[in-house]
Amino acid sequence: MRGLGSSIHPANVDYDAFTEVHWVAPAEAVWACRQLARRHYASGGWSVGAVALVAGWVARTYPAGTRIAAIFPDGPHRYLETVYNDAWCGEHQLLDQEAPLEPDEIAEPDECAVTAWTRCGQVRDPLERDVVGAGVR
Questions:
Q1: Rounded mean pLDDT of 55-64?
Q2: Could you give the angle at the alpha carbon of 130 between the alpha carbons of 118 and 106, nearest 5°?
Q3: HSE toward the beta carbon, residue 121, CA cutoff 13 A
Q4: Helix (H, G, I), strand (E, B) or coil at 53
Q5: pTM (predicted TM-score)
Q6: Is the Cβ–Cβ distance between 93 and 4 less than 8 Å?
Q7: Closest to 44 in 3D by CA, of 8, 5, 92, 2
């Protein structure tokens, strides 16, 4: 994702608390942002779109009665000239690409280069590295 992206890994995340990870592509996040604003009058940026897309899928696929908490980390003010700007989105080929109803699935987080909404049931701490010769992981 833009912002945090996949290259910055916060040290304060408890990766063991998660059972799966999802990656969402920019066009999918834009589509979800715009749908959320159009249908539910809630809006935000790239990460809000990604959260809404995944939360909607969870609501459709998890057992009835499952409690779902979706955190929308910001509002639309920083994204009026990007996510909500038709011309900008058109220039960056982010329009007219409806998000799929469900994600692709991979078995391992580093199995392939992900270019569309994908989920993985293996969650690894990206800061945890094998130390060669030390037997530490």
A1: 95
A2: 15
A3: 2
A4: helix
A5: 0.84
A6: no
A7: 2
Residues 88, 81: contact at Cβ < 8 Å? yes
CB 43 within 8 A of CB 29: no
Rounded (10°) angle between helices 46-61 and 26-40: 80
Q: Using CA of residue 78, residue 84, residue 90, residue 96, what is the dihedral sign?
A: positive
Determine the residue type at 59: A
Quote the pLDDT of residue 137.
39
Question: What tokens were used for 67?
Answer: 């409690």
Nearest Cα residue to 83 out of 43, 112, 111: 43
Q: Quick one: CA dihedral 44, 48, 50, 56, positive or negative?
A: negative
Tokens for 25? 């592509």
The predicted structure's pLDDT at residue 5 = 57
Place of tokens 């530490």: 136
Q: 9: pLDDT confidence band, cut at 50, 70 and 90? A: confident
SS3 23: strand
pLDDT at 129: 61
Provide φ and ψ at 24, rounded to 5°.
-125, 130
